[in-house]
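dumping this here before i forget
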Amino acid sequence: MTELCDLEAVELRRLIGGKEISPVELLESCIGRIEAVDGAVNAMVTCCFDRARDEAEAAEASVMQGEPLGLLHGLPIGIKDLEATAGVRTTFGSKLYADYVPDTDQVSIANTRAEGAIIIGKTNTPEFGAGANTRNLVFGATGNPFDPVKTCAGSSGGSAVALATGMTPLASGSDYGGSLRTPAAFCGVVGYRPSPGVVPAEGRPVGLSPFSVLGPMARTVKDAALLLAAQTSADRRDPFSSGLDPSLFDPLTPADLSSVRVAISTDLGGAPLSNANREIFRARTQTFRHVFAEAEERDPDFADVHECFEVLRGVNFVAAHGQRVRDRRDDLSPNVVDNVDRGLAYSLEDVARAHLQQTRIARDWLGLFDDVDVVICPGASVTPFAHADWSVTEIDGVEMPTYMRWLALTYMPTMATACGAVLPCGVDGKGMPFGIQVLGPPGADRFVLEVACALESVLAADPATARPIPDLAKLAASP
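structure:
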């Protein structure tokens, strides 16, 4: 029998609004699932059940009294532990903040709470979001729900695992080089990277950098769109937050795929990709490419993107964490230290050249959409690996020059300031989730979500590409 915690967020919100279920019932279902399976995966690292129960009772009273209800009224949500939550411990995955409790919510959290969401807990993340393996020196590693000794990726790994296992119907994420998209691909859920400014990020250390964004994670595209509508607002402290797109608040309707032109790119023209994932992607796209008006093999122009990404990421890390590395080097994880050290080695000329490269990449990306509507590519370069390893060091015998290079499939679109969704697309040869990206130009958020929603239905109709479900009974029985 399906538990309440396994239902889609859109359906749960309808049931709450129709007085068919209580927010209290839903919350208790989610708490029960956390208590049953989180011991096996370590996704929900700080829980606030008592406060959540009080808020669920208040949410129930509002329904019964006929008061106006927000978009997320009564829906439990997991919040990535990089986002500040008033009264709830926020560690950023760092020993330096192990006991930090903010006084106020950051804007993205305040927005979701204003729409009625109930924070059930904080989800695990690597330290300061550095690295695509959710593992830190405060809480340890988060395991993949399909094999807990493997990684769920990162940095929004705890959120992806919480969703895949039914701990919560919604969860927040953030994305720079794929921090939201890679965990979605590794865990069989949906992640959406919005265009810069759609969700305000007023606390971003380098305010004029558009690459780090906040966004929604869920089990379906419609659920992700619902959360996105709640997260978004205009905030003058974020220079990319210039106003609201009213269409984001409309109920999501699937696109007519028979009118959509698609560029299918196996490796975006230069991203490392395992032979296994290359073959899976080619086979999977053959099952659905016929639903589009046009589906051509075409690679974007991402020349110089690897240097560009590493230099500009280094600038961000030196700005955000340079002082910490100087003062507390031994208390920080190796990925934070590596990023800062690498950034400090670049010259002013390197930074200037990277800005020129990024500008050309972004303009070429925009030009691509004169002929196509969306780009589809794999969501990750490899199958999930053991979380005991900090990163992927080689792919099919080819050594990765940096710990970040295996993430090129997701960081290349970041350098173009793309928006994009990751959709589950069955499992790979090792029985682990496989995901694909649906990418568009900045500002095309509504359209990309509509295409992803329609494609999601196509994938769900085929057992080979449907969203995989982890073995919850096996997780619950794990020590």
